[in-house]
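The aim of this short unit is practical: by the end, you should be able to scan a pair of folded records and say something sensible about each. We start with the first protein, listed as its amino acid sequence and then its structure tokens.
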Amino acid sequence: MMLSDLYLERYADVLLWGLKTSRRGRFKKGDVILVQYDPAALKLAEILYDRIIAAGMNPVQRMGLTVGMERSFYKKAGGRQLIFHAPGEREFFGNLHGRIYLHAPESLTHLKEVDPARIGKVVVARKPLRDILERREQEGLHGWTLCTLPTPELARQARATPEAYAAQIVRACYLDRRDPAGKWTAIRKEATAIKQWLGRMKTAFFHVESENCDLKIAPGEQRKWVGISGHNIPSFELFVSPDWRGTEGTYYANLPSYRSGNYVTGVRLTFARGIAVKIGAETGEAFTVGQLRMDPGAARIGEFSLTDKRFSRIDRFMADTLFDENFGGKYGNCHIAVGASYTDSYTGDPAALNGALKQRLGFNESALHWDLVNTEDKTVTAHLSAGKRLVIYENGRFRY
């Protein structure tokens, strides 16, 4: 199941727009750009490689592990193998200026028999490398973006025909436009006005109410709303990394998750004083509990997000978090991420947001970042510091 050559060229246009938009600093000749891709994404990787070479930068290509390789690794690797870093890896990440990841999975559930603790050990071991890229991004030296390409496995898990699945990707990313990157620029401009409106509010906490959610989230001090930054293609969400200590109540993810080769449905979390004290799932509960026990920050919130249905053309389940967390449909969506926060939600210089300041402001630290999506009809109310209440989101759209 492939996109046409025309759509792949337009996809490359949007990804390069996203890469450029995501970086605070400017790209220049000689910069090092990593192109990571699953085997099924080879053709788009070739197009991007050609474009990066033509721009005078230095592409480094890495194809991801096959299903067989991943099974071998997670089932047979010893303790030291699980946490192994290849020689030169830290140096490479410390000199990387950009990264594009092309997600095109051959399987979504091939690690369901693996002990979740082994998967968590690998994630924790890779965190120092992610920290290097985060620091470079904070300093304006690195940008990144990613996308998903259609595969038979994605279509099967989403209960869609291959043609319908590919068509949704085309619509969602505006590849049916002659100038999709121009459309993304326009969406970003419109969303910026909404982010500024949210940022002007002095909010003590947000209250999320739906059939299965009753959750209070405190944005915290020195926060701003961010989103549509080029990091994800597509991305319509606006989000904040809140003060994890102010999370209280119940959250329910009515959309399934495919994560680390596992299938999870019906995640229900109850928070008290910022920590998920009750963890349940209708399918994959042992895996879910294992993920949220990965490290001390894994059972805390790192992100609160809302998607306006006026922006998003996604109207079906896609079995892919990148699309599902940006679902538009009838009621839009909200999602929370348990685990790591995003430093670009800080109002000051992200490069100054060291460990001590993160801790003081309640920015969460974790090796985990797991987006859990709710598409129910919901109302989100801002409880302002002055005592007033303001409904900011209902019927799938911001009340801006």
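Turning to the second protein, read its sequence before its tokens, just as you did above.
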Amino acid sequence: MSGAPAPPLLLASRSPQRRAILEQLAIPFEVVVPEYEEEPSGADPAAEVERRAQGKARSVAADADGRPVLGVDTEVVVDGRVYGKPGDSAEAEAMLEALSGRTHEVVSGLCLLTPAWEEVRHAVTRVSLRALTPRELGLYVASEEWRERAGGYAIQGLGAALVERIEGDYLNVVGLPAAVLVDLLAERFPGTYGYG
């Protein structure tokens, strides 16, 4: 599309982190809160996050007016156990204790759809946390940064101090598998969004 502005993606998400990542990548978007209940199905984590991302995207597709719709879902997984968003400070502390000194996976599903097609993919980033002292755990939990965060931490905030090593897409840990999205935009909309 020479000179024509790229149509904004319709982001089916409540997440301020996902909005910030799209702004960082200069991808135009509008937000619509998805009408989708995240019920666990017991599927493996990659299939689970793909299913939820697809559900979120499909829940707002009727409002898209032909624009591409983006749905994303993220989980933290260690030893096959899925850690979602902690419900309170005790649960946040227990999650962080379980992740302390260990490597976990941040698994995100992404669904990009238009009236003509639907693409569903996932990304995995491995994150190793330092061995955290009880004092460090207590101070981090007291910061309240764990709220609304899968795994109970925010790598882009104070949680950066908890991390020893990361393998993979950093922005996936923040909340959106950017490398997967950029690849899809380059493949499906060459040049339109500045990629491909």
